[in-house]
Amino acid sequence: MSTILLNGVCPECETELSTPPIVPGETLSCPECLLTLRVEEISDGRLRLRMVEVQLRDWGQ
Ligand SMILES: [Zn+2]
Questions:
Q1: From what superkingdom does this record's organism come (predicted)?
Q2: Average per-residue pLDDT in the chain?
Q3: What is the number of domains present in the chain?
Q4: Inside any domain, residue 61
Q5: Which residues surround ligand 1, an ion (CB under 5 A)?
Q6: What percent of the chain has a predicted confidence (pLDDT) above 90?
Q7: Residue 42 contacts by C-beta under 8 Å, 6 or more apart in sequence?
Q8: What is the whole-number distance in angstroms between the Cα of residue 13 and the centre of ligand 1?
Q9: Rg of the chain, C-alpha, whole Å
Q10: Using CA atoms, how far apart are residues 60 and 55, in angstroms rounded to an integer?
Q11: 8/54 Cα distance (integer angstroms)
Q12: Is 22 part of any domain?
């Protein structure tokens, strides 16, 4: 198997990201700003990423 990497750009900090094959709907983290990004679409090996608001649950301690 060849090592294919998909490329995308973080919408927040514009860092170039590369990731092993991933499918739309999956999420990854930007190594630079640590935001969670969701894959919206993949075209020609380019990822279109969208920021995901991560809501942490309040465990009510
Ligand atoms: Zn980023």
A1: Bacteria
A2: 90
A3: 1
A4: no
A5: 10, 12-13, 15, 30, 32-33
A6: 75
A7: 6, 22, 23, 24, 48
A8: 4
A9: 13
A10: 14
A11: 20
A12: yes
Instruction: Tell whether 32 is covered by a domain.
Output: yes
Q: What is the pLDDT of residue 53?
A: 81
14-18 LR contacts (CB < 8 Å, sep 24+)? 17/47, 17/49
d(CA 34, CA 40): 18
Cβ burial of 8 (10 Å; 0-12, 13-18, 19+) is buried
The residue with tokens 């930007």 is 30
**Residue 60 C-alpha to ligand 1 middle, in angstroms?**
30
Q: Is the pTM of this model over 0.85?
A: no
Residue 47 pLDDT > 90: yes
Where in the sequence is the domain holding 23, given as residue range(s)? 6-51
